[in-house]
Design a protein that fits this description.
Number of strands: 10
Strand content: 15-25%
Number of helices: 6
CATH class: Alpha Beta
Helix content: 25-40%
Radius of gyration: 16 Å
Largest sheet: 7 strands, mixed
Oligomer: single chain
CATH superfamily: Glutaredoxin
Number of domains: 1
CATH topology: Glutaredoxin
Distance between the termini: 29 Å
Structural class: alpha+beta
Strand order of the largest sheet: 3-2-6-5-4-9-10
Length: 209
């Protein structure tokens, strides 16, 4: 296994969250340079408009990819808000480079996240964000390719459930190559949420050419 992949897998365990407010912040983990890591790959999923789209459709674009689910009580919406705000800040400061970036959300809960649900969800964050869903088998295959760990957390005698999953906002390059993990918290501030969008914008400024 490539040494970059080994280092990344060692850090991945730190990203697992139950989508609740008392979980660890991703700012506590180091932002990794993913050059050379074996993450990602071709897929075809259903977008928020019910259309089949593939990973290759984004060739030539940088891609911010976040895995989560719309029923996540707080972690996913906060992360996506930070990504969207940071991207918007980057748009204002570097419009030409920002035009090369495509924010992408992929659900890990396809049973509940239909295209209509995903459409309403991503619209709350940024008009450019694309959301994907699919069959359980399709999502499982994509999650495996993108090194995402997830599992249902369903209490006994309850129809409700959470989805524990790794918090891994990835940045991929124009050829679909992994570049870096995008920070969604600011570890330098007492309230790590306060400077999070700025950290996202800084990361985009660093990597997007």
């Amino acid at each position: 296994m490539h040494k970059t992949q080994i280092a990344f897998m060692a850090g991945l365990a730190l990203f697992l969250t139950g989508c609740s407010s008392d979980t660890g912040k991703s700012g506590d983990e180091p932002m990794g340079n993913l050059a050379g890591a074996k993450i990602g790959g071709p897929f075809t999923l259903t977008d928020q408009n019910g259309q089949k789209r593939s990973w290759g459709d984004f060739k030539g674009k940088y891609r911010i990819v976040y895995f989560g689910y719309s029923y996540c009580p707080d972690v996913c919406p906060v992360d996506l808000q930070h990504i969207a705000q940071g991207y918007s800040q980057f748009e204002k400061e570097h419009a030409e480079r920002a035009a090369k970036v495509q924010p992408i959300f992929i659900t890990l809960d396809p049973e509940r996240d239909t295209p209509d649900v995903v459409k309403n969800y991503v619209a709350a964050f940024h008009p450019k964000m694309i959301g994907f869903t699919g069959t359980s088998e399709e999502i499982a295959a994509v999650a495996k390719a993108f090194v995402i760990v997830y599992m249902k957390d369903k209490p006994k005698d309850s129809s409700e459930y959470l989805v524990n999953h790794s918090r891994t906002p990835y940045l991929f390059g124009p050829e679909g190559e992994p570049i870096a993990l995008i920070p969604v918290d600011d570890p330098s501030t007492p309230d790590k949420d306060e400077g999070a969008p700025e950290e996202v914008a800084k990361a985009l400024d660093r990597w997007v050419k």
